[in-house]
Amino acid sequence: MRWAHRNRPAHPVVIATAAHNAPAVRVAEGLGFERVLERVHEGVPEVLYRSTALLR
Asked: Which of 14, 19, 28, 32 has the least CB density, counted as fewest CB within 10 Å?
């Protein structure tokens, strides 16, 4: 994430995971990612998270 924020600051870091994947959801939220979209992708409910804070 540090590399992404340093080298591509105009592009957020995004996490996509199956909605039922509770461990991945906890990691995304624990890292401070913001839930921005819920959708069905290839028949599987999915959630997308976007980074909200710049890392230094």
From this structure: 32
Query: What Å distances lie between residue 48 and 17, 38, 56, CA to CA?
Result: 7, 6, 23
The dihedral region occupied by 32, where left means phi > 0, alpha psi between -120 and 50, and beta the remainder, is left
| pLDDT tens track for 15-56 | 999 999 999 999 999 988 999 999 999 999 999 999 876 544
44 and 24 in contact (C-beta within 8 Å)? Answer: no
Supply 54's token pair. 């710049």
Give whole-number Cα distances, 26 to 14, 18, 44, 53, in Å: 15, 12, 19, 17
> How many CB atoms lie under 10 A from the CB of residue 1?
12
